[in-house]
Specification:
8 helices, 0% strand, elongated
Length: 183
Amino acid sequence: MNGELMFLNLIQKIRFPLLDTIMVFITHLGDKGLIWIGLTTILIIYRKTRTLGLMMLLSIIIDLILCNGLLKPLIARPRPFVFNPHINLLIAKPNDYSFPSGHTAISFAVAGICYLLRQKRLFTSTLILALLMGISRMYLYVHYPSDILGGMLVGYLSSWLAYRFYNQIQKYSQTQKKKIPMH
């Protein structure tokens, strides 16, 4: 953890007002997953993108269970600012634990679904925002690099599990349709 704090302290040396504003804005996009929930809702509304939206929703639910429900309380890792109380935080201190990064995890859960469903343009934009989200969390001194990596892995695992679950439901549905006799 000492090396990770050194890395975070190094990032603090590149801070300047415009970048501070940008990083705070990016991180607030991910607060409570609202940007991803909003995107998911919009996709569910339209028939053409409903499957993508439903899979994103499933991925987000799995991510919330894994990240916030299981891993954060189980690992109970204190945030970096606890070990460096002299840091000037630009956002309110988060009250939950550090590992894995929830902002990063939900972002990668959404980007992962876009990747798995071969939504190339949407994948590119969600991946860029997911990466910026992780960087912003380190810049703001609320997550370690390993928290970001953990969030990336949990997020992608959530999307993969959602994808697999959805495909199993589809296969089951198809076999049930074949069993129903047509008159």
